[in-house]
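Below is a typical protein record.
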Amino acid sequence: MPNPAIRGYGSDVLVALKKETTYGTKPTGNWAKMPFSAVSLGSSRELLRDPVLGQGRDPYAPQQGPVTVDGSITVPVDLRNFGHWLRGLLGAPVSVDQTTNWKHTFKSGAASLPSCSLEVGHTKVGQFYPNVGVVVDSLDMSFSRSGFASATLQLIAQGEEGPNATTSGGTVSELAYLPFNRFQGAVKRAGSSVANLLDASLRFSNNYERVETIRADGKIDGVDPTQASLSGQLKARFSDDTLITAGINNTAVDLEFSYVISATQKLIITCPEVYLPKPKLEVSGPGGVDLSFDFQGAKNTTLGCMMQVELYNDVLNTVYA
């Protein structure tokens, strides 16, 4: 009988990361343990069919294609650990000591963004897969009335090492876990809650472009962030023409997405210049008439960015630097 003690289970997997000093070079020291609910980051290599003919109906052996290392990770939106992902998405924040807490402000538009090494460790099996040159390509979040607050991040890496018998993360550090709940969330326009809002979603993307140079190891040379994008959707029960009029006139509106535990424990995402389409008023039955607005964001000259994220917690400024 196989020993169940050495079978792999998701409950035994640990994810740890650390910011890289040099892209693609695995850092030393102790890494940070990260909470997550799903991860698919890893390498894949397709097989290319040999096109040579003349040997009969059975083909020659296939050849290996280039290495692709990407995937996603779904994480809880929590008070402390989420700052690591925001740093990867937007760059290091400006952190201000407010005596009783810290205010970390992240802004879009940075010319260069950091990379990290991220290890997926199957602890019971004893196999660890460190990924190097990992960048955060995009962030997807949704807001609704109930459930756990989570975010899905698309990742691109230069390479995957392993499997290794030991971890690269040393003695991992761990920030105290305090998740936000969706009932603590709000979506506001001009400082007031959006009326009759049923649910909302938000997506920010760095739109990285892989630098696929010719290399003997099949890896990419790097990734370059191109023009960023901000989009999302508001779904509301039809009650007035406020948002419809903004769409008709192509008038910019400001949106604020937030999770608040207290005055010193909160996450505020500001989209200062958002444009809405004019949706159809479709009636499909006797029930409520709902409207969906697929918005797009743009850089706001006053705030100097397309998106700003403020994270209020008790984490020192050096942690996200």
Observations:
- The longest helix spans residues 82-90.
- The longest strand covers residues 127-143.
- The two ends are 50 Å apart (CA to CA).
- The chain has a mean pLDDT of 92.
